[in-house]
Amino acid sequence: MKVREYNSEDYDLICGWWIEHDLNVIPDVFLPVGFIVEDEGGAAIAAAWIHCCKYSLMSWMNWPIVNPNATDKQKHKALTMLCDNLRQFALKDGYRFMGAFWHQKSLVKFSENYGFMKNHDNVTEMFIMTAPMQGEN
What we know:
Layout lengths: L1 E4 L5 H10 L12 E6 L5 E9 L5 E9 L5 H21 L4 E4 L4 H10 L23
Parallel strand pairs: 4-5
Antiparallel strand pairs: 1-2, 2-3, 3-4
C-alpha cells in the first residue's frame, strides 16, 4: 500500500463511502490537506484529513473514512498508515500534538490501540459559520 495526497478528483468517491457508512457528507470547502491510502493496484482504501492550528502546537485528524468494500486487514493497515503519515506531516511543521473526535466505536478502539489517549466520552462535534459562504446573504 502507498499514501498519496488527497485531491478534488477524489471527492465523489469519498462522498460515496460516507453515504455507504451512513455518515454525513463533508462539504468539500471544509476539507483541508488530506491523504489517501491506495492498495498495490491503485484502488483507494482509506482517507483522512488534518487541520493544523495556526497559533498552537495542536493538529487535528479529521473525518477518517474507509472503503466499505475493503477487508478488515486492509482497513487497519490503511488507517495505521494514515495516522503515521498525518503525524509526520504535522511534525515537520512543528506541531507536537494530534487530536481527534470520533463517533464510531471502531475508530475509538483503533485510536486507543494506536496510542491516542482518551480525554472525554460522549463528546459531540458542533460547528457554526462565522460568515456567510460566497453567494449567501
